[in-house]
Amino acid sequence: MIQEHDFHYAMENTRVVVSPQGGIETFGTTRFQFSLVSELLDEVDTVRVRSGKIEAERPRILSPHHFSRLMLDGFGEEARDYADWIESQGADIKILRYGFQFRKTDLSERVVREPMDETIERLRNQIGDDPLAALIAGVDDAWEVCLLKFSMEMIRKSAGGNVDEWKRRGLI
Length: 172
Prior knowledge:
By secondary structure, the chain is an alpha+beta fold. 39% of the residues lie in helices and 26% in strands.
């Protein structure tokens, strides 16, 4: 289990080197292929390359009523008051829900004996024009935190376009 300082270290030291060209699809599932490169701290010029897929489910619009039911699970009276306020706002509040699945069955990893910068450059060239590929430089022990940070960046990148598309189609 990682400690809080490990989490913060991973968040601060994760860098998306190559970001997918597109965002999360508004009306379908999006599958990103990732390569995550991290230095092994106990060996000089040695990195671990993890590759796999992250699947982003189509985003959903939650009504205030549905959102208030979701957020109350395990919360107290203050949460009920807040949920009542959200419901009273009616159509003025729209909440987006993004879902990610990380499938470890698609995960592979290998250790490469070369400097991290060289590995990143080689992988960048291999990715080429793949619009759904991501290359991430991260931290070895907390590598899953690095993937979560990447996922959050994809949500931020995609949210505006998803909302615009729903508006064009008259859904919100």
